[in-house]
Amino acid sequence: MNADQILLGYPEKPSNPALLHRRFFPSKVGGQPAWLNPQHLPPLSDLQCPRCRTPMTFILQVYASLDASSCFHRTIFLFGCQPCGNQFVAMRNQLPRDNAFYPFEPPDTDNVSGVGDEEEDEFKSLLCPVCGLPKGDGEAGSSPDTSPAAKEGRRGDDKAALIPRGHRRCRRVSEDGMLVGVFEEYELEVDEEGEEDADKQGDYSHEMELKRRYDEVAKDNPDATLDESEQQFFEEFAPPSCRNDDTFQTFLKRVRTNPGHVLRYAYEGAPLWFASAQQLEDGPPDCDTCGSPRVFEFQVQPELIHLLKLDKLEWGILAVYTCSANCGGEGYVKEFVYRQPEPM
Ligand SMILES: [Zn+2]
Ligand SMILES: [Zn+2]
Ligand SMILES: [Zn+2]
């Protein structure tokens, strides 16, 4: 993705999941994060919910190079807290073209073998096998497991004792099924934002008429429905308080012009606000690390909630702002996420 353009990200089932490996620099939704710098991972403390301290869950990552030589490879990662549902964290990471981890030349997407070597095993041992986030201090797995069960396993079968253990949360995930360790994985296909249909400018009556008819029919006959996409559209995007909100109408129109996208990328641009209420009034806070101003980079659309069946997470839009100086060298730097809630 490049500056000066508005780009949209469409989720697609990956044609070849191997291409979502970090060495192909993917933009993707769900699955485990494809960490760009595999050596200096962020500490788990940066990825724990600021409110409840639970390790967050990976939502998506956007590969977004910039012109600066230090940003030849550059990825923004987004995480959310499942128990809280309204806490989000973004991390930025970048590498120059000449770096210790990836070849100078672009990867050959026809050749996906070579993944799974020793280096990869070592890298994986740093991560929770369930969610793909770094294991942390005070979490089992960062040190040898000395529980009686593990000792037992070690005597019986050396391999069993070596199975890497994940976060306490993630072990619970597999036991009670209340939370998920990873969301369903999709590749993000990038396309330019299409023009709005000039004839439709300012005209919203079609959708409102559909809605009126839907309400009427549904009242008399609970089984009658509009076709699936229409119904989904109303359930997803039309909270009652928004029906007369111009900002919401604009949002809806732009979204409907390019149906199905979950990401809107507009580097140094502005968010397309979901509604007039609860926009970020005073702009984003300056970078915590270097003090430079932050710029808008992308927003995640509510369509993603529907796609991933996220009954735990909620937003109108998530607007991600990043440090204009792209500070932090080759390390991971925490960035700012503004959650504009969906009005009730
Ligand atoms: Zn939380
Ligand atoms: Zn985990
Ligand atoms: Zn900075």
UniProtKB/TrEMBL annotation:
Q: What is the lineage of its organism?
A: Eukaryota, Sar, Alveolata, Colpodellida, Vitrellaceae
Biased region (Basic and acidic residues) positions are: 151-160
Which organism is this entry from? Vitrella brassicaformis (strain CCMP3155)
Q: Where is this region: Disordered?
A: 135-161
Among Pfam families, the record links this protein to: PDCD2_C
The name of this protein is Programmed cell death protein 2 C-terminal domain-containing protein
Q: Which residues form the Programmed cell death protein 2 C-terminal domain?
A: 245-340
Lineage top rank: taxon: Eukaryota
**Among the entry's GO cellular component annotations, what is one?**
cytoplasm
